[in-house]
Design goal:
Elements: H1 4-54, H2 72-80, H3 82-91, H4 105-114
Helix pairs in contact: 2-4
């Protein structure tokens, strides 16, 4: 058996370890509570947005869908001129950035490439390489 001093030292070490474990548990519980509050907030906002959007009026776009259907090349061109279209669409109601009368995924791919969405048109040209001196 140890002396009284040894027992007191062991008791102090035990109390320090116990205190450290308790602090860790409290911190972990605080993080869990914050996560739960964040998740609850995100869920509440999402449900609120879904409820509000379900009340939105539906527009009839049959008039827009007559005539020429834009394909990949049309999407590419519309993507290239998208910044100009956006600025003009702020001032005029008859100009849109994205053509409603399109053939779907091919138009969307052309628009994405044309607008630089994947960096195809300018990634290498905009970057300069330094030469070793």
């Amino acid at each position: 058996m140890g002396t009284t001093e040894d027992l007191q030292q062991d008791w102090r070490k035990f109390r320090i370890v116990k205190h450290t474990i308790n602090q860790y548990i409290k911190t972990d519980m605080m993080k869990t509570n914050r996560l739960k509050k964040s998740l609850l907030t995100i869920t509440t906002v999402s449900v609120f947005i879904i409820l509000l959007s379900s009340c939105a009026n539906k527009e009839v776009v049959d008039q827009c869908l007559t005539g020429y259907k834009y394909s990949f090349l049309g999407g590419l061109w519309h993507g290239i001129i998208a910044p100009v279209d956006f600025i003009i669409s702020l001032f005029r109601d008859d100009v849109t950035v994205y053509a409603q009368n399109n053939n779907g995924a091919w138009y969307a791919l052309g628009f994405l490439i044309g607008s630089g969405g994947w960096g195809f048109l300018g990634g290498k040209g905009a970057r300069r390489r330094r030469k070793d001196r």
